[in-house]
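Input record (one chain):
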Amino acid sequence: MLIIYLCIFFLGASLASYINATLYRIEKNIKLSTLLTESSYCEKCKKKLTWYELIPCFGYLLIKGRCKNCRSKVNPYYPISEAFLGGSFLLLYLNSSRFYIWIILLFLFILSYYDFLYKEIPRNLVHTLLIFSVLVFILFIQIPLSVIITVGILLGIFLLTKIIKKSFGFGDILVLLSIGLVISPKQFLTTFWLSIVSALLYAIFNGLITKEDIKKIKIPMIPFISLSFVIGAVYGDVIFSKILQLIIPPL
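The corresponding structure, as predicted from the sequence alone:
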C-alpha cells in the first residue's frame, strides 16, 4: 500500500511540475511546438536541469533552493505547489473522492499559479470552471434539500463578499460559486471560512516580517481557497459538525 501511496503522491507532484513549467512557457510566449519537447532550464542562466533537479519536491532540496550553475534562487512556490498537489491527490485518493473533485482541484491549481505570481486570474479559465461546475451540478447533484441549502448559502456568501469586496475580487466570487455547486453545504462553509482564516494568518505573518500594514497587503485568495477546498471536500462534514458541537453543546 505504501508504494501505491507514493505513486499517487508523485503523480500529483509530477503533474504540478509539468503544469508549472507549461504555464511559465506560455506566459513567456515560447513557441507551442517546444512546450512538450524542450527540457526544463534555469530561468536566469538558461542551463538545462539535470534529472535529479527535476525530481518533484526533492530536487529543490538537493540543490538547496539555488541553481547549480549561476546560484540564483529558485522560487519556493514551485516545490510548495508540487507538495500541495501531491498531498492533495493522496488525500482525495484515500477519501475515494468523485472524479469531478479531482478536475476542479486541477482548475484551482492553475488559477492559483496566476493568482500567486501575477495577482490576477484568467477570465476564460474561471468561466470554464463555472460551466463545468454547473454541468456537474445538473448531472450529479440530485439531493433537493442540499440543493436548496447550497443555493441559499451561495447567495449569502455573495452578499457577504459584496460587503467586504476589498478582500474578494469578482473572479474569487465566481470560483467560490463553482466550488459551492459541487460539494455539500457543510463542506462549502468549512472551505469558505478556512480560506478566510488561512488568508488572514498569511497576511498577519507577512505583515510581521515585512513591517507592512496588513490592510495594504495584497492577498492572492485562490491558493487559500484551493487548500481549503481539499480540506473541506475531505473533512468538511466532520469539521463542521465538531465546530457546531463546540458552539452549541448537545443537551
